[in-house]
Amino acid sequence: MRKLHLLTELQVKNAKPAKGKFVDRLPDGGNLYLQVTRSLSEGFNRNWIFRYELDGKRHDLGLGPAHTVGLKAARAKAAELRMQLYDGIDPAQERKAIKAERKAKLAAEIKRLTFAQCWQAYHKVHARGWKHPKHRKQWESSMQTYALPVIGNLNVADIETAHVEKVLSPIWDKIPESASRIQNRIKLVLDYAIAGGYRGKDNPAARDLVKARLGKIKRGNGHYEAMPYIDAPAFMAELRARDLVSARALEFTILTAVRTNEVLGATWDEIDLKHKLWTIPAERMKAEREHRVPLSDRAVDILKSLHHSGKHVFLNEAKKPFDEGALLKLLQNMVANATVHGFRSSFRDWAAERTNYPHDLCELCLAHKVGDATVRAYLRGDGLQKRIRLMQTWSDFLAKPQTKTGDVADLKAERERRANA
User: Fold this and answer.
1) 372 class by beta-carbon count within 10 Å (0-12 exposed, 13-18 middle, 19+ buried)
2) 350 and 382 within one domain
3) Which of 3, 42, 114, 243 is most deeply buried (CB count within 10 A of its CB)?
4) 4 in a domain, yes or no?
5) Residue 224 — pLDDT band, cuts 50, 70, 90?
6) Which domain holds residue 18?
7) Does any domain span residue 301?
8) Which whole number is the average pLDDT over 327-353?
């Protein structure tokens, strides 16, 4: 009869390889061994091994480290494995079968993952990198408003382009900019699902597939139409007549050709009135690069007219920063279908058609990247001195409402004239 329980707790605790050996195995009987290995830190690693032979082949199964699996527990595990051998079961194959069953169960659970659950997982991982509160809010509201009500409860593995089409078709032509962003956000969530093995390699929200179903997106139409630059001066005259802080914020946004959130997030410590300069820090910029904005005379006048009653430059009646919707509401009460962001396009069209300033300089005014990586490596400056003149010229243009012939225009009358032409 084979002897069992040859080791003691003290022997296990103090076990080490024989002198001159790197590894040693101490038998406890009944196929159970304590394997002791010298570590690189001059200590010792102690692990339990169950050794057996079956069909002429030797197998070693690890039962865990001795500091986690005690002597008593290791003997119990070894006894279970000996019973399997007695019943004709190969412990190694049994372990593989259990592992395969666990994987199959996990795979089944993965297949039950809904789009909403996948979106929540994606959001948890990636929202940490969204520095702008506006970006985070847009992501959440757009998905909750458009995507989740339609595909939120669908199995993420079952979503097809037809489902994505159902989400986007109501807004594809009406709100093209939003539709484009939502399409890309759905695609990113499904990319997350693909990377996690929750669905196959195809992405049904890919732009080419959606475009094949809904047609080319019509940017610049409907809700996101930009005001023609020829109309901008007359609009600015109407805007200046409104004695509202929101009106001054909108006017300042148009004068500086920056994004709405950059204006509404502006703080007094970013403003240098003496040098007529506004420096927006990198963390508040879309491209994550500091942007210096030269201030025209009118932009400086607007800032001087405001009360320093808080950290932020533009504050509502509650002494809090404006929500972006406030400027959009003000604008659309004056001009239907226009957007605040569209004035950046108005500025760019004006600069291209009415000035001789270089293309790259105009792009720098909009904080756009200029050229490829090689060009940017040599273009170290931001053209500030030239941009000072350009932005003052833009301000002067906006101060004089004109028709195409150069006469002073009434905005409403000019619109009626064009509509009847």
Assistant:
1) exposed
2) yes
3) 114
4) no
5) very low
6) 9-106
7) yes
8) 89
